[in-house]
Amino acid sequence: MNNKRDITGARNLTMMTDLYQLTMMYGYYRHGMTKNEAVFDLFFRNRENSAYAVMAGTESVIDYINSLRFEEDDLEYLRSLKLFDEEFLDVLRNLRFTGEVYGMPEGTVVFPYEPLIRVRAPIMQAQLVETALLNLVNHQTLIATKAARVVYAAAGDDVMEFGLRRAQGPDAGIYGARAAMIGGCTATSNVLTGQMFHVGVKGTHAHSWVMSFPTELEAFRAYADIFPTSCLLLVDTYDTLRSGVPNAIKVFDELKARGCKPVGIRLDSGDLAYLSKKARQMLDEAGHAGVKIFASGDLDETVIRDLKTQGAKIDVWGVGTKLITSLDCPALGGVYKLSAEFIGGVEHPKIKLSDNVAKMTNPGYKKVLRLYDRKNGMALADLIALADEEIDENRPLRIYHPEQRYKTKVLSNFTVRELLVPLFVEGRQVYEPPEMSEIQAYAKRELATFWEESKRLLNPHEYKVDLSDRLYELKQRLIREHSSSNDAAIGK
Question: For position 489, what pLDDT does the model report?
């Protein structure tokens, strides 16, 4: 797909699941429930450090579903567990995904409790895919969101992803870098990600290059001789201002004399605000105003914001560990919850109740709508609605705070866009993932439709996500019914 070598698509991840998915599937089989259709929603709950997330992982979901099948060695291993009978193992042997999957396109700005993926399938199939879908979407959405925050802090400067060596394994490095590109990074140091997904790769030399030569100046000259049109020099191996920058200027002078344009210098340690300002002054005075200053070294959105506030003269940011691991928020916390069953074609909405309101679920077969101001194209609010609901764009719409229902707002002069798109229908893939350049452009347009208040790094404005009136009434009815049945059960 997309003429690329995709690790997830090239291997069968069917056995990448939790054991309880298989034991539940066996239970459904033994209880004659295999013809029941289930609807599951994949969503995340409130995030501590961001009002929004950036969807990523949709393409990996498609690759996973297409490869879903148990191989003979899988069945032999399951047989060795002595949990399942041979009839059930034969069912697994012939299992293929026959249901539907709807998902958010990668790069979509998403919010808590909105279904990012909606699965409707025979209950055994819908149950089986839970773990893998959460693994794929949770990680990639987490990193895309972190990247979007870093890029926002950079305020128009280029951001490069440099995290492969600190990622938690090859997949995290490869797909984390891809997700970072969705979030707005302009290049990655990860060559395999560049090859697989046709994204830009960038890099310069390490300190070891400089240390391998008798002098720093000789190291710089050797590098410039090899890469005269893309010369970017790391200047902090010994002494940034007394050695590194002066030696870089000498080499840049020599390159200019040869008709070549030097690219820049990289700072990787020290007080980046002070060093970048002094280096900028030195470069400008030497006639190299066009040379860029790159910075790296334990950066994240907070550090970048503070450095810019302090007037740092940095043009390009290389962000590694804190981006690829999302260090301050290491998990998205997405969940996969049953919202409805179809038995004999009749829908039975389902709800999970909890003493913790945040853990209650929204019932029914649903969709997600985004409302835009017709005049300026900015996002006004999202509406989680039942799948068969239609919103009349020509009539005012009252929306409510999801918990404090007395807080309301009337929207008018708006347009509506449905966010979930079909990925699979009757087991067949119906969605062709866009090229990465298209995803990046889409993500940039998406973020531009939200006001700065919703994107700020600290205490962001809470974007409005409401339940439609019909969905809200359904939820309240189910709460009352469960409460009444529990009261009757204990004799109240």
Answer: 53
